[in-house]
Amino acid sequence: MTLDFAAMNEDPDAPCYDEGHHEFEIDGSVVVCRRGCGAEMPIVELEPSEHRAILELPWTAPPLSLNARRATRGAMFAHARLVAEVRAEVHKLALAAGLPRGLDHVAVLLHYRPRDNRRRDTDNLVATLKPACDALAAGTAKHPGYGMVPDDIPRHMAKPEPIIHEAERGMPGVLWLEITWEA
């Protein structure tokens, strides 16, 4: 199965850039560019009959935490950059998955399987969940969202407490979103 993602033409240094588009194909658990530029995206598992989608996030650990201190200007700018990165990545994954738009209600659940079994608080994952949910909602003029629902308020979006799974020996950490909705 070959997929053509013309929207991936953001890297002018990629060998495919001059050609006008990447040509993607499925290779194991990722979609990779056949032209050898190294561009890849995780496979998004979509089960339309169950109205459930799994979006694999590209991080091995949560990029944001409620424990992070933003005491300096530099730390605040770094935090803002990470929030924007999470929003952009989730938006890109929702586009690639072809998730529906204009729904009345969705539930978004963040899963995390860490690389080890140290103690972790699920509430620290909320800092990563928030911009992910913002990206799935319609957003604002300054921060446009995907538009699955009009807003991420409780009337339109449920955000259950994130789940931390047991680590698997020798495996890197992984984060994913489970999104469910009614048609």
Write the layout of secondary structure elements.
Elements: E1 2-3, E2 24-27, E3 30-33, E4 40-42, E5 45-47, E6 52-57, H1 73-97, E7 106-113, H2 126-136, E8 157-158, E9 163-164, E10 174-181
Parallel strand pairs: 7-8, 7-9
Antiparallel strand pairs: 1-2, 2-3, 3-4, 5-6, 6-10, 7-10
Helix pairs in contact: 1-2
Essential attributes:
183 residues; alpha+beta; 60s Ribosomal Protein L30, Chain: A; 2 domains; 6-stranded mixed sheet; 4-stranded antiparallel sheet; 2 helices; 10 strands; 20% helix; globular; disordered N terminus
Fold and architecture overview:
The chain is α+β, with helices and mostly antiparallel strands. The protein has 2 domains: 1-42, no CATH class; 44-181, Holliday junction resolvase RusA (60s Ribosomal Protein L30, Chain: A, 2-Layer Sandwich), CATH 3.30.1330. It contains 2 helices and 10 strands; from the N terminus they run ββββββαβαβββ. The protein has helices at 73-97, 126-136, and strands at 2-3, 24-27, 30-33, 40-42, 45-47, 52-57, 106-113, 157-158, 163-164, 174-181. Strands 5, 6, 7, 8, 9 and 10 form a 6-stranded mixed beta sheet that branches. Strands 1-2-3-4 form a 4-stranded antiparallel beta sheet, with no helix packed on it. The longest helix is centred in the middle third of the chain and has 25 residues, at 73-97. Mean pLDDT is 82; it is low at 1-12 and 17-21.
